[in-house]
Automatic annotation (TrEMBL):
Pfam families: Cellulose_synt (PF03552). Gene3D superfamilies: Spore Coat Polysaccharide Biosynthesis Protein SpsA, Chain A. Signal peptide: none annotated. The keyword Cell wall biogenesis/degradation applies. The chain crosses the membrane at residues 20-40, 52-70, 530-548, 598-625, 645-665, 686-703, 715-733. This is Cellulose synthase-like protein E1. It is a multi-pass membrane protein. Keywords: Cell wall biogenesis/degradation, Glycosyltransferase, Membrane, Transferase, Transmembrane, Transmembrane helix. It comes from Hevea brasiliensis (Para rubber tree). InterPro entries: Cellulose_synth, Nucleotide-diphossugar_trans. It is found in: Endomembrane system. The keyword Methyltransferase does not apply. The lineage of its organism: Eukaryota, Viridiplantae, Streptophyta, Embryophyta, Tracheophyta.
Length: 734
């Protein structure tokens, strides 16, 4: 390749068919305007019955419309990216930058150590110069079991990495590799394969036995000095910094069985004290940023959750194409990959795949200054993450002036580095404010990404054919709802924080991206109009009062047009993103459930937090479940299983709609014709029936099931009584 001539390392293509989409969106918008016109012109006058209900409906419809406009922003200007990895390696050969990989884990009980080390092994085996790769595991659980697992993994890596490279295997998480059918069928069923599998299984056994027993074999304890650091350990929330360099990447003797260099491997449990807030994952990440700066100081950082293993051994090269292009890279701060999940059922019963988000919306965000940072599967430029502003003369030289000139012993290096992970280190500094990940928000990732973009940087969304990372999605309804609640709460808080996409970001990022952020930041308040729509029209249906136009009225047309096109378009988008029809139906259900429970509670939580009543926490999502639950999950039977307030709301709403529906059916049987009902109150009838239909699994969970995943009978009784009371008092009083 000719030196000096500019050859791009990546390409950005605009989505096709934008013009058609925009025309379509305009017609829908006209329909929406007609709906407003209907609401305003037909509003009962002051003193007339039903005025407040109409005002409520108008409010809800205005909210929906505003939100619809926002969803258009992320469909308006979509782009797609592709990279040229071969050019990258030709151009830079051995001058590629060092890359530091951060894996976070928090609790060995719900994030099993064997899963964590599989993630670690998958990234250690990246097809990248091992001398330029360092892997850091942050263990917020401060568990010697996790440390033991990592120690085992550091030994196994000496066999695993050369094996992966020799046979060019994918994926490089051993568990995923041995479980994958394609690798079973036509893999090199030779001795090497059998040997490596045996080695893995032995390691797996040792780790799992230790995890089950809750302690490490006594003899292992003496073998490695690292365990002595637990001598002063009192609890997960009260211990000194534990730092252990398991493989020193700089050590010429750190070699795999083939004599090739190994990537660095470091275990860190930052110091924690009960009175001192540790700021959850953000705190862990900031400690890692500082600790790694002393040890390897790679200018590029990859951040992964402990369940997200690498599924593509060339992802680093892909990401570097975005960071190392001579002309287009200077302002790129991070490259975000989508999250994929390996444990979804065929129709994705809890709608966890976030299909449309990753296949449509994120491409839309990428058309502006780029996607949000979503905490995992994201490559960062260290400088940008540490608070640097982007200015026109930010040009990067990737060659590093080596500041570790005098080689130190591991012990010295560890002792020098430890203070960086102490909780006092951050006192009176900008960490958590202007440096590193932001504190105080349950979605530390999104707010951090926003603050980076507000400092003039851009980001890139890269969604390659072969999935780069695969993680674990929640497998029960309560887990999904809790996760969604944390996200909705965090995103809503961003709206009021210093970096609010509404005011602070104005002028710093484009209007389109401001809208893009609002798409997520407004999840919590959208719960209110959804709740309104899920209750009021059904009540009025029961009473026989119409709130929407009749079929014969011309006003019916805009409603019919907007509703039908939106659902058809939504279905098409879902199928196009790789979903199934049943999966779409499940998504409609989860759409409703998230809004009426998670988002609603997130709304309340945020308000309470603002008044100073509560503080947000981070409920870590469980990454494994027991056999019984797993069986139901695989059969796509909804798992309720507890009686949290969120499930109580869902059950009560479902019962309420059932009563209204039964009440109406009863009336029709007694004295009316179904035909007349559909003519006079078509939309209310449709809405109420759809709500009943979508809630079928809930009724089953309340009354028909006997397994452990059903709803508790106390909750069934509660929701039954509350809904009945609500319906009767409404019909009698209003
Ligand atoms: O005190 C804590 C709590 C969590 N974690 C780690 O943070 C990651 C994410 O936690 P998880 O319970 O899996 O949450 P999810 O909802 O699946 O995570 C998504 O949403 C989070 C923000 O809400 C982001 O931090 C994550 O990166 C993103 O994947 C996991 O690796 C945890 O081990 C910590 O290191 N320390
Ligand atoms: Mn997770």
């Amino acid at each position: 390749m000719e030196r000096g001539k500019y050859i791009p390392l990546f390409e950005t293509k605009e989505a096709k068919g934008r013009v058609f989409y925009r025309l379509f969106a305009v017609t829908v918008f006209l329909g929406i305007c007609c709906i407003w016109a209907y609401r305003i012109s037909k509003m009962p006058r002051k003193g007339e019955d039903g005025r407040w209900v109409w005002i409520g409906l108008l409010g809800a419809e205005l909210w929906f419309s505003l939100y619809w406009v926002i969803t258009q922003a992320v469909r308006w200007k979509s782009v797609f990216r592709c990279t040229f990895k071969d050019r990258l390696s030709q151009r830079y050969k051995n001058e590629l930058p060092e890359v530091d990989i951060f894996v976070c884990t928090a609790n060995f009980k719900i994030e099993p150590p064997i899963m964590v080390v599989n993630t670690v092994l998958s990234v250690m085996a990246y097809d990248y110069l091992p001398e330029k790769l360092s892997v850091y595991l942050s263990d917020d659980g401060g568990s010697d079991l996790t440390f033991y697992a990592l120690l085992e993994a550091s030994k196994f890596a000496k066999h695993w990495i050369p094996y992966c490279k020799k046979f060019n295997v994918e994926p490089r998480s051993p568990a995923a590799y041995f479980a994958s059918k394609s690798n079973l069928d036509h893999s090199h069923h030779n001795e090497v394969w059998v040997d490596i599998k045996k080695l893995y299984e032995e390691m797996e056994d040792r780790i799992e036995i230790a995890t089950k027993l809750g302690r490490i074999p006594e003899e292992e304890r003496f073998k490695h000095r690292g365990f002595s650091q637990w001598d002063s350990y009192s609890s997960q929330l009260d211990h000194d910094t534990i730092l252990q360099i398991l493989i020193d990447g700089k050590d010429p003797n750190a070699k795999d069985i083939d004599g090739c260099a190994l990537p660095g491997l470091v275990y860190l449990a930052r110091e924690k004290r009960p009175q001192h807030p540790h700021h959850f994952k953000a705190g862990a990440m900031n400690a890692l940023i500082r600790v790694s700066s002393k040890i390897s100081n790679g200018p590029i950082i990859l951040n992964l959750d402990c369940d997200m293993y690498s599924n593509n051994s060339l992802s680093i090269q892909d990401a570097l194409c975005f960071f190392m292009d001579k002309e287009k890279s200077h302002d790129i701060a991070f490259v975000q990959y989508p999250q994929h999940f390996g444990n979804l059922t065929k129709n994705d019963i809890y709608s966890n795949s976030l299909r449309v988000g990753f296949n449509v919306e994120f491409h839309g965000l990428d058309g502006y200054e780029g996607p949000l940072y979503i905490g995992t599967g994201c490559f960062h430029r260290r400088d940008a993450l540490c608070g640097r502003k982007f200015t026109k003369d930010c040009k990067f030289e990737w060659k590093k002036d080596d500041d570790h000139k005098t080689p130190k012993s591991i012990l010295e290096l560890e002792e020098e580095t430890k203070p960086l992970a102490s909780y006092t280190y951050e006192e009176n500094t900008q960490w958590g404010k202007e440096m590193g990940l932001r504190y105080g928000c349950p979605v530390e990732d999104v707010i951090t990404g926003l603050s980076i973009q507000c400092r003039g940087w851009k980001s890139v969304y890269f969604n390659p054919e072969r999935k780069a990372f695969i993680g674990i999605a929640p497998t029960t309804l309560p887990q999904t709802l809790v996760q969604q609640r944390r996200w909705a709460e965090g995103d809503f808080q961003i709206l009021f924080c210093k970096y609010s996409p509404l005011w602070y970001a104005h002028g710093k990022i484009s209007l389109g991206l401001q809208f893009g952020y609002c798409l997520y930041c407004l999840w919590a308040p959208i719960s209110l109009p959804v709740l309104y729509y899920a209750i009021i029209p059904s009540f009025y249906l029961l009473k026989g009062i119409s709130l929407f136009p009749q079929v014969s009225s011309p006003w019916f047309l805009p409603f019919a047009y907007v509703i039908s096109t939106q659902y058809i378009y939504n279905l098409a988008e879902f199928l196009w993103s790789g979903g199934t029809i049943l999966g779409w139906w499940y998504e409609q259900r989860m759409w409703l459930y998230k809004r009426t429970s998670s988002y609603f509670f997130a709304f309340i939580d945020t308000i309470l937090k603002m008044v100073g009543f509560t503080d947000s926490t981070f409920v870590v999502t469980a990454k494994f479940i027991d056999e019984d639950v797993l069986k139901r999950y695989e059969k796509e039977i909804m798992e309720f299983g507890d009686s949290s307030p969120m499930l109580t709301i869902l059950a009560t709403l479902a019962m309420l709609n059932l009563f209204c529906f039964v009440g109406v059916v009863n009336k029709v049987i007694m004295n009316g014709s179904i035909f007349r009902l559909c003519k006079t109150m078509p939309l209310q009838t449709l809405l109420c029936s759809a709500l009943v239909l979508i809630n079928l699994p809930l009724y089953q969970g309340l009354f028909l099931r006997n397994d452990k995943g059903k709803l508790p009978s106390s909750l069934a009784l509660k929701s039954f009584v509350v809904a009945l009371l609500a319906c009767t008092s409404f019909t009698l009083l209003c």
